[in-house]
From TrEMBL:
Pfam families: Gal-bind_lectin. The lineage of its organism: Eukaryota, Metazoa, Chordata, Craniata, Vertebrata. The keyword Cell wall biogenesis/degradation does not apply. This is Galectin. PANTHER family: GALECTIN, GRIFIN. Keywords: Lectin. It comes from Bos indicus. Residues 5-133 form the Galectin domain. InterPro entries: ConA-like_dom_sf (IPR013320), Galectin-like (IPR044156), Galectin_CRD (IPR001079).
Length: 140
């Protein structure tokens, strides 16, 4: 799988950041994932659509091993069609939306949240756009 996007923010990417990925699922393989990483390189949040089983799976890789996988059968993505996924976070969870449907929420397993400093998007699909933005900015 090819690294299509990577961003780093020393102050942390959770809570309050929003990742938007738009692309095209042009093959039958499960070749797309999003990883949020800590300063130490642990994958504190891994989200992957599995087209083969029509499930969205989430997990964390910490201390050299994967934790308990969480899966959602809410799967609004269609093979061969354009897709949009959005990942946001608050103080308690990562939230995942696909095609504007809430797919799952994943409780933070890593503290402090400020140590979540990197995000990667890996894909063999064509990605049209990847956007990382801070949410909730108010200009008074």
């Amino acid at each position: 799988m090819a690294l299509q996007f990577e961003a780093f923010h020393a102050g942390g990417l959770a809570p309050g950041w929003n990742l938007l990925v738009q692309g095209h699922s042009d093959s039958g393989e499960d070749r797309f994932e999003i990883n949020f990483l800590s300063e130490t390189g642990d994958i504190v949040f891994h989200i992957k659509p599995r087209f083969s089983s029509a499930t969205m799976v989430a997990n964390a890789f910490q201390g050299g091993r994967w934790g308990q996988e969480e899966a959602s059968s809410v799967f609004p993505l269609v093979l061969g069609e354009p897709f949009e996924m959005e990942v946001s976070s608050d103080a308690e969870h990562f939230h995942v939306h696909a095609q504007e449907h809430k797919v799952l929420q994943f409780a933070h397993r890593h503290r402090p949240l400020a140590a979540i400093t990197r995000v990667q998007v890996l894909s063999d699909h064509r990605l049209a756009q990847v956007e990382l933005a801070r949410k909730g900015l108010s200009w008074g």
